[in-house]
Amino acid sequence: MADVRNFPDDYQWERAKRLGVSQSAIHYALKRLRITHKKTRQHPRADLQARQAFIERISDYERAGRPIVYLDESGFAQSMPRQHGYSEKGLRCFGPHDWHAKGRINVIGAILENTFVTLSLFTENINADVFYAWMTQDLLPKLPHGAVIVMDNAPFHKRNDTAQAIGDSRCQLEWLPAYSPDLNPIEHKWSGAKAIRRQKRCSVDELFTEHIEYVRLC
């Protein structure tokens, strides 16, 4: 355990060499200790004090029983060609690709307790006007008073009338620390949605209407 704490991102062969054992011994020791291989990347410009202060505020909200809503945007390609295939060794693998396929669909979503509250799909780029309309017409009417809304510092999030609308709805705005997308759990939901789409081979509309779970708010 001490070796893992001191050298968390070392490869197994590096541990084996340092400890004078085989790599397979390291593999089984880590498995027995239930130590798994993972890494959360942190931006070098992230402010550690701001991150810690944010984490503590979120903990305070949770202890107070306040609903915490995380929101973000993501893009989904309308076409989904497979990037790799099989062929005999030495031969290239070719597959069909529509070079005139439509572009991307932009999605704004929000989660509560790790489940989507709402999602909206747009074929145009998301700007301050689009975001304000989504916030006031879609998200805020669905939230209970006292909810904490967490979002990043994208320029189109920061228009004054958006912040005013959040306050008028008796919700509280909490900004993510700069360069800290890893503190927004909706990032994992986007990754999960894209994995589901690859598995189901479905359209973006089908993905969000048939394969995604939503919170039922009273």
Automatic annotation (TrEMBL):
Gene3D superfamilies linked to this entry: Ribonuclease H-like superfamily/Ribonuclease H
InterPro entries reported for this sequence: RNaseH_sf (IPR036397), Tc1-like_DDE_dom (IPR038717), Transpos_IS630-like (IPR047655), Transposase_14 (IPR002622)
Highest taxon above the source species: Bacteria
Pfam family, one: DDE_3
An annotated Gene Ontology molecular function: nucleic acid binding
Domain Tc1-like transposase DDE as annotated: residue spans: 67-201
Transposase Synechocystis PCC domain mapped to chain residues: 2-50
NCBIfam families assigned: transpos_IS630 (NF033545)
Name under which the protein is recorded: Transposase
Originating organism: Xenorhabdus ehlersii
Lineage, uppermost ranks: Bacteria, Pseudomonadati, Pseudomonadota, Gammaproteobacteria, Enterobacterales
